[in-house]
Amino acid sequence: MMRSAPMKLAVVAFLLFILPAGAVRAQDTPAGVAIDIEPGEAGTPAIQIKRGGKLYPLRQHEILYANDELVFPPEAGSKSSVKVLVDAQRHVTLNAQNTKLPPANWSGLQGLLPKLASAYRWLYSGGAGESEGPRNAVSRDISAELAPSVLPGVKGKLLISDDAGPPLWIGWTDGEAPFKITVSAQGKLITQAEICGGDPPPEDCLREALLPNLPAGTEPLEVKVTAADRQQWAKTLIRQSILKSPQSEPPGDLGTFLAAVQLLDQEGGAYALESARILASIRERYPAAQKLLERMRNGEVP
After folding, report:
1. Which H or E element spans position 15?
2. Beta sheet of 63-65, edge-to-edge order
3. pLDDT tens-place string over residues 73-103
4. CA triple 85-81-291, angle to 5 deg
5. In angstroms, rounded to a whole number, what is the distance separating the alpha carbons of residues 267 and 200?
6. How far apart are CA 184 and CA 204, in angstroms?
7. Is the previous residue joined to 73 through a cis bond, with omega within 30 degrees of 0?
8. Where are the beta strands (DSSP E) in the chain?
9. 130-297 to CATH, choices 3.90.930.12, 1.10.760.10, 2.60.40.3110, 3.30.365.10
């Protein structure tokens, strides 16, 4: 069923709140979402949106409108393209030879817009509490003896699913390499890993770990990270049944990504690590998942 005009304008008004001021007019109709930009590496020429006579940089999960046109840099050549979701089940690919979207299909996008807007917010908004300093998706409950910049994260409880699920992802920003990570249940070691080992440790140490082989069950898990400079962080993860989002619409990695984003919107970040588990499972195939994990690791979300 089509949405009424007031409802349609209400959704567009919400999108105006998260997009650049003046970039979108309320009468424009959402026509698609940029779900994959190639090439996406830093330093490559930027693709831009021509909107209302002005140019804006195109970003992952940008919502595009009926009158938008993409501008591809000449030096990018034939390798530059954008995959645009135009309804729940279909996407089109734009490039230098095909820069305009097909006619807007409002009915095909309206059900996804709230989820897509939330994804855009998590990918690009600074979020609340920026003045608190470095944060990440591990824990902001830091032991009193540790420096306040070491292994911060989410205040309060952290929840993950009670099934075996995908590997557990954690990320942090500080401490000296190498790092030892252990996961235990009721005092029994389940798995462990060393991150950034070697003599000397790598200078470009990526401070994150992916921990497989977690058994199903409801026993709480204790995750402990110990840095070479003896700084240590430990957190108990509560395990419970978590309702899986239906993946029928949209299908594939986009549906998986939006399911992870929905978890971030619940209970003040308590599901951040469960969200990260899902994102890590598609990061190699879906650039927005990789970007959101980087923001988690760097303390920009949740």
Report:
1. helix 5-18
2. 63-65, 30-38, 81-87, 90-95
3. 887 667 788 988 887 778 889 988 888 888 7
4. 70
5. 41
6. 28
7. no
8. 30-38, 48-51, 54-57, 63-65, 69-71, 81-87, 90-95, 159-161, 168-171, 179-185, 188-195, 208-211, 221-227, 232-240
9. 2.60.40.3110
